[in-house]
């Protein structure tokens, strides 16, 4: 079964209304071998805040060294976002396998009139995936209520109710007290329920269950937001009975502080249940580095552009309180909501907007713009405009806003998901110069088999691939075919999911397509991205950095005793300086100084020790006629090295730590954003890539957005797909072969392949890898690499020059 077929079957279950009880879920799980049995799990329930709490808890537990499964809903653009292990989405082939195994039972139950709902089936998929991945603990975001929710099929070791407000009254009850009592049924048998509820809701919960309260006052765990450091971070204080944490959070707002406190308290309960020490440092790092797309997510700074999935009056009040703390002139509000929501109350709760841009998300439940316009006219003083799409509304708002204004997109996570396409959609050129390459490109985009067979022979010209919404995808393919080119669309049928479109044509045909797209109300941004991907109308970058003038060579200088290739050879300052000078003579454009090995099984080095290794060397190299890079994943080391004279940062964790992003932004220096599953490399941490380039590119896209949120200009970023680093040899070679696709993000690309174990696949042992390293350098340069990172500079400089000569340069 192909992935699009599996997804379409699952999507058909959405038509079923929620029902009470866990019997159907339990029955489905029984056919799967009861994967929930013996699985340590945490349930996170609540009216608002459960998603951000679940994500924060997951990140804290990962910082503590646990393998964590995370189940959340809804997704933004891809069903697989709902199920993650170690931060990675469930692979497509796992979804297909589950549907193959579970569908007969689903069909049987439908005959009996007890077909599982979409949420029940997806809950079973999550638990099945977690069992197959042997996770240490599963974090489950409850769907509706608590007592009858599908996630209540587990026996939790810890649970929380984040907050309680009126919602789903037709199922949960007509009062806050009734809803609170329903949600509180997730209380575990051996530990108190953690909650941020207050007032009547808290009283109702406390009457039946032991509780541990979290909040800014009169609570068992104190949680308070402090100074707003920037639009993307604020200080946070958490104080428990025998622990305390001072950190920063990327999720601003007093309610988010409470959610962080709930997550921290749950993490300590999980540690107690599993016999794992969850330290204050783990909590601080987890809270600081949580990533929750669509939850007060700042996407731009001029104008200030915020995406937030507030979808009920209570969430809108909290959003308004948070936004009030930031400075801006006029407010441009992009709004779309679901039919069942209280739109007048949401309007009144939102911050006062100067202009409202109303749109209908492309989902069946969306409220029409005519109704919303009437509501806004009655409830606000905003000038109101309506648009055919969320992207059209967003582009109009961004176009009209001055740099000092604020653009806020909200009302539903569906609205936010479509708005986010403005930043995440990056058309990329893919190779279809052979029948096999064309068929692989179409299959990777989930194009149905019959369409692949029909179109593959026509994929002979330039080919672009990118994601759009289903309606626009068919329109683009039709237009390209009318121009004489061709194209195909993913077989995924859901309107609210990303679908891939693959377009092939001549450069003139693409120019005509761009003119058509630019004329569409929501097409300016996409037209520009297509032009950039094809190199139409782009200017050469001035040679400000070594990689702006052809492929630069970065020489590796390990000042460590245990690096995999040359550890111990240059771990004194004189030896390191001599080595750096020799590399520069051999033609190195950059010298990369590293004080910690990231080879498989390497022991982490304390920051102070790494700093003592690196800084004296960097200081001695400051006057050398070369660019000096510091290879570190620690913000403290990077800060010290930059102060000592380093010119850039090379971070194997891809700027995963918010503190590192702050350092890079403050110093306004280039930084390498590398993709890695773990650092140091964990040889047991593997991921079942469906298409390694797709998956790595998606991960790097999110890291680039995080960097930009922190104030790092995209022109200062280099992308490294991370050959090795948890990838199998075949996957590393595929990344090398398809290197040009990473240009889709508009940044330079670096390749680090020197002497790596991937060359075992060509029969070369640890001491025999110079020749394949040089060969790979030539291939990387030919495929457009901006930087190659190598140990043996002279040989690889020759390879780069050879590639350059073949291009006639």
Describe this protein's structure.
- With 809 residues, this protein is of the alpha/beta class.
- The chain is 41% helix and 17% strand.
- It folds into four domains: 3-289, UDP-N-acetylmuramoyl-L-alanine:D-glutamate ligase; 297-423, Protein-Tyrosine Phosphatase, Chain A, CATH 3.90.190; 428-534, no CATH class; 550-806, Alpha-Beta Barrel (TIM Barrel), CATH 3.20.20.
- The strands form four sheets. Strands 4-3-2-5-1-6-7-8-9-10-11 form an eleven-stranded mixed beta sheet, sandwiched between helices. It has an eight-stranded parallel beta sheet with strand order 27-26-25-24-23-22-29-28.
- Strand 12 and strand 13 form a beta hairpin.
- The radius of gyration is 27 Å and the shape is globular.
- The model has no long low-confidence stretch (mean pLDDT 93).
Brief summary:
The chain is an alpha/beta fold and 809 residues long. It is built from 28 helices and 29 strands. The chain has 4 domains: 287 residues, UDP-N-acetylmuramoyl-L-alanine:D-glutamate ligase, CATH 3.40.1190.10; 127 residues, Mur ligase, C-terminal domain (Protein-Tyrosine Phosphatase, Chain A, Alpha-Beta Complex); 107 residues, no CATH class; 257 residues, Dihydropteroate synthase-like (TIM Barrel, Alpha-Beta Barrel), CATH 3.20.20.20.
Strand content: 15-25%
Q: What's the CATH architecture name of the largest domain? A: 3-Layer(aba) Sandwich
Domain count: the total is 4
CATH evolutionary superfamily of the largest domain? Mur-like, catalytic domain
Number of helices: 28
Total beta-strand segments: 29
Estimate the mean pLDDT confidence.
93
Helix content: 40-55%
> What is the class of the largest domain in the CATH system?
Alpha Beta
Strands of the widest sheet, in order across it, are 4-3-2-5-1-6-7-8-9-10-11
Fold-level CATH name of the largest domain: UDP-N-acetylmuramoyl-L-alanine:D-glutamate ligase
Oligomeric form: single chain
Structural class per helix/strand content? alpha/beta
How far the N terminus sits from the C terminus, by CA atoms, comes to 48 Å
Radius of gyration: 27 Å
How would you describe the shape?
Answer: globular
Low-confidence stretches: none
Main β-sheet description: 11 strands, mixed
Pfam families: Mur_ligase_C (PF02875), Mur_ligase_M (PF08245), Pterin_bind (PF00809)
Cofactor: Mg(2+)
Function: Can complement an H.volcanii mutant strain that is thymidine auxotroph because it lacks the two dihydrofolate reductase genes encoded by hdrA and hdrB.
Catalytic activity: (7,8-dihydropterin-6-yl)methyl diphosphate + 4-aminobenzoate = 7,8-dihydropteroate + diphosphate; (6S)-5,6,7,8-tetrahydrofolyl-(gamma-L-Glu)(n) + L-glutamate + ATP = (6S)-5,6,7,8-tetrahydrofolyl-(gamma-L-Glu)(n+1) + ADP + phosphate + H(+)
């Amino acid at each position: 079964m192909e992935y699009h077929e599996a997804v379409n079957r699952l999507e058909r279950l959405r038509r079923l209304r929620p029902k009470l009880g866990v019997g159907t879920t339990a029955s489905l799980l029984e056919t799967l071998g009861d994967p929930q049995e013996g699985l340590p799990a945490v349930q996170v329930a609540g009216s608002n805040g459960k998603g951000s709490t679940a994500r924060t808890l997951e990140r804290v537990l990962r910082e503590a060294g646990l393998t964590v499964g995370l189940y959340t809903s809804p997704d933004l653009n891809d069903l697989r976002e709902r199920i993650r292990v170690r931060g990675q989405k469930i692979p497509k082939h796992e979804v297909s396998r589950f549907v193959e195994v579970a569908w007969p039972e689903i069909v049987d139950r439908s005959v009996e009139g007890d077909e599982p709902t979409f949420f029940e089936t997806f809950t079973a998929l999550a638990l099945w995936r977690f069992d197959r991945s042997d996770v240490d603990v599963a974090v489950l975001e409850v769907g509706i209520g608590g007592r009858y929710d599908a996630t209540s099929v587990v026996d939790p070791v810890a649970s929380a109710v984040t907050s309680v407000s009126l919602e789903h009254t037709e199922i949960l009850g007509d009062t806050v007290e009734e809803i609170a009592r329903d949600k509180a049924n997730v209380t575990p048998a051996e530990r108190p329920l953690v909650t941020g509820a207050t007032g009547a809701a808290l009283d109702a919960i406390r009457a039946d269950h032991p509780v541990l309260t979290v909040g800014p006052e009169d609570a068992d765990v104190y949680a308070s937001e402090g100074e707003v450091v920037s639009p993307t971070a604020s200080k946070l204080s958490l104080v428990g009975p025998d622990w305390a944490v001072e950190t920063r959070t990327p999720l601003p707002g007093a309610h988010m502080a409470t959610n962080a406190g709930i997550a921290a308290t749950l993490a300590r309960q999980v540690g107690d249940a599993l016999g794992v020490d969850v330290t204050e440092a783990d909590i601080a790092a987890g809270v600081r580095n949580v990533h929750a797309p669509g939850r007060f997510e700042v996407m731009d700074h001029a104008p200030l552009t915020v995406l937030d999935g507030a979808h009920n009056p209570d969430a809108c009040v909290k959003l308004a309180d948070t936004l009030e703390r930031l400075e801006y002139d006029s407010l441009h509000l992009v709004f779309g909501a679901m039919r069942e929501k209280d739109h007048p109350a949401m309007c009144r709760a939102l911050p006062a907007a100067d202009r409202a841009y109303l749109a209908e998300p492309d989902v069946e439940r969306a409220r029409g713009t005519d109704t919303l316009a009437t509501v806004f006219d009655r409830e606000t003083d905003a000038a109101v405009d309506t648009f055919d799409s969320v992207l059209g509304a967003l582009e109009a708002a961004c176009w009209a806003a001055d740099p000092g204004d604020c653009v806020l997109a909200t009302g539903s996570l569906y609205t936010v998901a479509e708005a986010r396409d403005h930043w995440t959609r990056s058309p990329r050129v893919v190779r279809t110069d052979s029948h096999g390459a064309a068929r692989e490109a179409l299959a990777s985009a989930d194009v149905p088999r019959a369409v692949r067979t029909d179109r593959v022979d026509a994929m002979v010209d330039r080919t672009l691939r990118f994601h759009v919404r289903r309606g626009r995808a068919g329109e683009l393919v039709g237009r390209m075919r009318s121009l004489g080119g061709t194209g195909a669309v993913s077989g995924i049928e859901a309107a609210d999911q990303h679908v891939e479109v693959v377009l092939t044509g001549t450069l003139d045909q693409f120019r005509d397509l761009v003119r058509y797209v630019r004329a569409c109300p929501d097409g300016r941004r996409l037209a520009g991205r297509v032009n950039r991907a094809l190199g139409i109308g782009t200017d050469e970058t001035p040679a400000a950095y070594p990689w702006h003038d052809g492929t630069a060579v970065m020489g590796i200088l390990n000042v460590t005793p245990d690096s995999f290739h040359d550890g111990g050879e240059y771990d004194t300052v004189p030896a390191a300086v001599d080595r750096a000078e020799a590399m520069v003579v051999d033609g190195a454009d950059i010298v990369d100084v590293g004080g910690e090995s990231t080879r498989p099984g390497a022991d982490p080095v304390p920051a102070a020790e790494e700093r003592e290794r690196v800084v004296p060397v960097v200081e001695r190299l400051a006057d050398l006629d070369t660019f000096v890079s510091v290879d570190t994943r620690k913000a403290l080391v990077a800060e010290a090295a930059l102060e000592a004279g380093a010119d850039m940062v090379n971070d194997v964790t891809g700027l995963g730590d918010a503190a590192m992003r702050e350092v890079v932004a403050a110093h306004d220096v280039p930084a390498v954003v590398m993709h890695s599953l773990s650092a140091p490399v964990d040889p047991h941490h593997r991921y079942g890539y469906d298409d390694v380039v797709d998956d790595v590119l998606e991960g790097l896209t999110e890291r680039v957005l995080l960097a930009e949120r922190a104030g790092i200009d995209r022109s200062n970023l280099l992308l490294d797909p991370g050959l090795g680093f948890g990838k199998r040899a075949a996957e590393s070679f595929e990344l090398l072969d398809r290197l040009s696709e990473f240009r889709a993000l508009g940044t330079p690309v670096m390749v680090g392949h020197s002497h790596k174990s991937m060359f075992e696949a060509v029969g070369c042992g640890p001491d025999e890898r110079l020749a394949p390293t040089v060969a790979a350098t030539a291939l990387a340069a030919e495929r457009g690499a901006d930087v190659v990172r190598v140990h043996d500079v002279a040989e690889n400089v020759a390879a780069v020059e050879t590639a350059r000569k073949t291009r006639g340069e």
